[in-house]
Write a structure and sequence with these properties.
four-stranded antiparallel β-sheet, mainly beta, 3 helices, Porin, 22 strands
């Protein structure tokens, strides 16, 4: 048992060390980017090139030839946190973790017509409850090939973060303005999936841009690397940019690092339909398989609709959105397949059709989510932000909203953009009303994360 004064003293020490590190790093001289390679190709030979002479953190190691380039870029995020479930902040728990430890391999070939991307994450904290063939690789995150016939159209084949999740998932973990994504993203976004995708960019006149995204995927996430258990997932996203594109890829990270000189905005709507869902939200495909009396596979459909936005101007940014999910259950379900492959009818033969329907729905993330956040970057490269997120479960659904409100505040010191930064976060995650007690109403936490990308 650690009493409140001791906990506050520990927290104060934690903050003091953090701010001391910030102050020390702020005076460091940063590298200056130099994009020149001075490449000369000898006729008949392909030569490898040295690292850029003006190397900047995050550039990775790039080899260049006359046919294209090959880049290796490792990144590491270490996390330290203190949390308490009690109102008086007693009995805190400390955690030390590797949040992300990634190696990204990227290559452009044939005048950027073809590119390949593969990424592995050595730090995985997801434990699959499946066994045997109904499991998946938690280390491989992306492995895909892109074909660009021109600058307007792109076709993608393979495993990657999906276009048809929320806007937060369009942003790499190393480029988030907060330490992690919101509870809305955690509840409803599958993130990775295997399939075929298209994205385009169309100028509607003046500075107006329209970006459509289409995808046909397995809906099984990384389970599909072994087997697609259900049907296919069909998705579409339409993004509208009324003030032209963001500077330096600013649409795909949070804080306004390059201080947009003119307002920039993207508004998007997204819809997906999974014709055969086998897990709560599409991350662990094959977890739940149902059948009729003849053991023919019968699966529910799962649909998701959402809208989101991002705005940036002169150091200020805001991002937000909402999502709604629904499902339908087929008739004649008579049992489910166990993880060992045998068919289990126990319990189903004594239930009414309505009870069976509710059993299936109780294993899907069904309901609504909302998230809004904003932040401001000072000229000194200190950033401050706040976020509010909320979840609402349907009456019959998997339990994904025990904590149905989250309030988060973050301070970030950017030392070399997102390639080197330190983030300190304070938050409160509120328990839903039915779970509150006289001593507990949620989780209070503070955490610090160090990010470096080479």
């Amino acid at each position: 048992m650690i009493n409140q004064p001791k906990f506050l003293t520990l927290l104060g020490t934690f903050l003091g060390i953090s701010m001391g590190q910030f102050a020390f790093a702020q005076s460091d001289e940063l590298y200056t980017r130099d994009s020149t390679y001075n490449f000369v190709e000898t006729p008949g030979n392909t030569q490898l090139l040295r690292i850029k002479k003006g190397y900047l953190l995050g550039d990775g190691i790039t080899f260049i030839s006359g046919k294209g380039n090959f880049n290796l870029s490792p990144s590491l995020q270490t996390l330290y946190s203190i949390s308490s479930l009690n109102k008086n902040l007693s009995d805190p728990n400390a955690m030390f973790a590797i949040n992300r430890a990634r190696l990204n391999v990227f290559s452009n070939l044939f005048d950027n017509k073809i590119s390949l991307n593969a990424r592995i994450n050595f730090a995985t904290n997801f434990t699959s409850v499946t066994t045997g063939n109904r499991t998946f690789n938690t280390t491989l995150q992306e492995a895909n090939i892109e074909y660009r016939p021109n600058r307007t159209h792109v076709f993608n084949f393979g495993l990657r973060a999906d276009y048809v999740d929320g806007r937060e998932t369009r942003i790499e973990g190393e480029s988030l303005g907060f330490i992690d994504r919101s509870i809305m993203s955690d509840a409803f976004d599958a993130i990775f999936d295997f399939g075929i995708r298209y994205k385009g960019t169309y100028r509607l006149g003046g500075k107006h841009l329209l970006k459509p995204y289409l995808s046909i995927t397995t809906g099984e996430s990384r389970s599909a690397l072994q087997q697609n258990f259900g049907g296919l997932k069909y998705g579409v996203r339409i993004d509208y940019l009324p003030f032209d594109k963001f500077s330096r890829g600013g649409e795909f990270y949070m804080d306004d690092l390059y201080r947009e000189e003119k307002p920039k905005l993207v508004i998007g709507v997204v819809y997906s339909f999974n014709d055969g869902a086998t897990s709560a939200k599409g991350t662990n495909g094959g977890r739940w398989l149902y059948g009729d009396a003849q053991q023919n596979l019968l699966l529910p459909t799962y649909s998701k609709f959402g809208a989101d936005y991002m705005f940036k101007y002169n150091g200020f940014y805001s991002i937000g959105g909402f999502v709604i999910t629904k499902a339908t259950v087929p008739d004649n379900i008579a049992g489910e397949f166990r993880l060992n492959g045998t068919f289990n009818t126990a319990g189903y033969n004594s239930q009414t059709p309505e009870q069976i329907k509710n059993t299936v729905l109780s294993r899907l993330n069904l309901g609504r989510g909302f998230n809004v956040q904003a932040g401001y970057l000072l000229p000194s490269n200190w950033a401050f932000g706040g976020r509010f997120s909320a979840l609402k479960e349907d009456n019959v659904t998997a339990t994904f909203a025990n904590n149905d409100r989250a309030y988060t505040f973050v301070t970030t010191k950017y030392l070399s953009a997102h390639a080197l930064k330190i983030q300190f976060e304070l938050g409160y995650s509120q328990l839903r009303q039915s779970l509150k007690t006289a001593t507990q109403n949620g989780t209070y936490y503070s955490q610090i994360q160090f990010t470096i990308q080479l």
